[in-house]
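Researcher: Quick test of sequence recovery. Tokens follow.
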């Protein structure tokens, strides 16, 4: 199971450091059966990343990646810092798609570059626009654009984040999440049906907290969660981790 913490730009560098320290004390070396990944903002990445060594079982990721190996791009993280301090990178978050106009093409380009430098992309997709013939056309188009640019042997993660569930306190209906997870797995399977393709985990994100996480843990096709606001304090994030690590919550 994956538990990803997207801190967005919600914390000061001091608060990011404090939160990382608290998590280091309380979760380092424990929960070896869960993939825990923290996504601080770029200012805090180095501090947080240096705190968690490979024995800590906690990984660190960037909230966005460089567009090209040599691109000079103000506001972007450099490829060398990216490769040095990140194990994962979040790409295609709907906040970036909507506010910055990030296209599927740009997201795919960043994903391919991340894979080249050994960073695992976590590609966020949303419902998109459907057509009369195919209500999931928009979702599939986001996925296919990524799949077209990435070698079928590469590892990445998909996070399904319906826009109306982000930051609203109202998570998506678990039945709908299960249905969408099935469509995502099927689209990936059809596109990269080769023996050496690794399994691609599918996560759900949008208003996940310790109260509602149980309804997503047991869903077929869901391999974890991407948590926003409930990951911003050690106590609330710990409550989520504890539920994920307890088998009784999978029933
Ligand atoms: P919330 O959990 O605050 O809804 O944020 C979800 C999100 O955007 C994670 O990437």
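Model:
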């Amino acid at each position: 199971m994956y538990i990803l913490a997207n801190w967005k730009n919600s914390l000061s560098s001091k608060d990011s450091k404090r939160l990382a320290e608290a998590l280091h004390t309380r979760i380092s070396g424990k929960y070896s059966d869960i993939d825990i990944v923290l996504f601080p903002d770029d200012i805090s990445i180095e501090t947080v990343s240096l705190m968690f060594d490979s024995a800590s079982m906690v990984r660190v990721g960037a909230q966005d990646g460089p567009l090209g190996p040599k691109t000079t791009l103000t506001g972007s993280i450099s490829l060398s810092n990216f490769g040095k301090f990140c194990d994962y990178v979040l790409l295609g978050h709907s906040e970036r798609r909507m506010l910055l106009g990030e296209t599927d093409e740009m997201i795919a380009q960043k994903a391919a570059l991340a894979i080249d430098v050994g960073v695992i992309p976590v590609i966020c997709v949303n419902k998109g626009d459907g057509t009369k013939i195919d209500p999931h056309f928009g979702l599939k188009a986001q996925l296919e654009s990524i799949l077209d640019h990435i070698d079928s042997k590469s590892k990445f993660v998909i996070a399904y984040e319906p826009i109306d569930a982000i930051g609203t306190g109202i998570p998506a209906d678990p039945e709908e999440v299960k249905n969408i997870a099935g469509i995502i797995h099927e689209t990936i399977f059809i596109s990269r049906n080769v023996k050496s393709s690794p399994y691609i985990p599918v996560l759900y994100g949008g208003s996940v907290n310790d109260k509602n996480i149980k309804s997503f843990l047991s869903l077929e096709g869901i391999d974890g969660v991407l948590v926003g606001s409930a990951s911003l304090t050690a106590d609330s994030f710990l409550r989520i981790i504890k539920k994920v690590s307890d088998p009784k919550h999978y029933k």
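Residues 174-191 form the longest helix (18 residues).
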